[in-house]
Amino acid sequence: MALPRLSRSFTGLLVETSCLIHQRTFRVSTVAAAIQKLTRVRVVDNSSLGNTPYHRSPRVIHVYTKNGIGKVGDKVLLAIKGQKKKALIIGHKMPGECMTPRFDSNNVVLIEDNGNPTGTRIKVPIPTQLRKMEGDYSKVLAIASSFV
Amino acid sequence: MRVKIMNVLCRSRKLLSSVVRSSVLVEQTQVLGSCLSKARCYRLCQNLPQHFAASLASCQHRHHGASFSCHFHTKRCYSERNEDRNSASTGVFEEESHEINDTSFLSQSPLETFSLDVLVSLLRQENAVDLCVIKIPEHIKYAEYFIVVSGVSPRHLRAMALYAIKVYKYLKKDGDPNVKIEGKDAEDWMCIDFGKMVVHFMMPETREVYELEKLWTLRGYDEQLRSMPDETLPEDFMFDVETTK
Description:
- Chain B: One of its GO terms (molecular function) is ribosomal large subunit binding.
- The structure holds 2 protein chains of 2 kinds.
- Chain A is of the alpha+beta class.
- Chain A has helices spanning 3-8, 48-51, 138-142; strands at residues 13-16, 25-28, 42-43, 59-63, 75-80, 83-91, 107-111.
- Chain B is an alpha+beta fold.
- The longest helix of chain B has 18 residues, at 154-171.
């Protein structure tokens, strides 16, 4: 019955209600991918700014890439505790390339403007592909305790 | 061996030539140490073109910063016996000045690769403060050696980093990737990743804050790691089942 509708919707998610009386199809755009503006992120280092509780979780307010999408290794600007802070994306929930780890939370490490990490240790596992990527990641890898 | 330091004409860089640990080298340096006059050193130098290729070329590099075809008048070559790379060793210095034909040091011996010995000796030569070399265990697939050095000032750190890059560029073969200095705009912490080795140039204060040596030797038992409170999930964390596509 809804087969022509099904064949038309080749992009996005098709939600079909189980009711037989009427068929409703929702066309939903694909997930924009990884980390973008206003995503809530998890700060994983031991900095005081990232670990003290606040009534709002840290959010991304700007992504420093050509498109507004942040993947592993991209710098973002966070709003934490009412102040702006730069951060580096360590892992995201979106599946990435083959043989790269996918995390259950969007992990981020706070860094200063000169690139030095704000915290001194990272407990969360860090993907090793950071080493091969272009960018200043050796400092973050140096304070990491486990690698994935 | 006698310690003999002659007039220093310009305080530019000198690469320690006995970085390469080989029995042949020890004999050569012993022979070198025993001679006094310039002429004899020069003759010996002529006999060891390959061995001094790197040192000559790098000295030349420092002096002129140009192609290898230029002659230079003063050359200083130092030889140092280092049995243990981590301990302070008594150095035997010898200096000579003469003109060397450039054709002798165009050929590199297979021993002149940018190894840990080369790096450590050049850091020592640059008066690096608190040099620390840590061997990373095999199960951590990061690098083989983790080196932390301090410097007297930010300019000192930058100079050390640039010199290390310069030596690496000279000693690298065609297949080796280029290496860049990470953290150039941060004046108190710079890193260079040489593939097998990672070097961190930090100021002493920064070193105290981060305590990288403790982390990389103690690994899981590090104090700062242990003092971190256990992770609890944030209140708004939702574990979603994948609904994409």
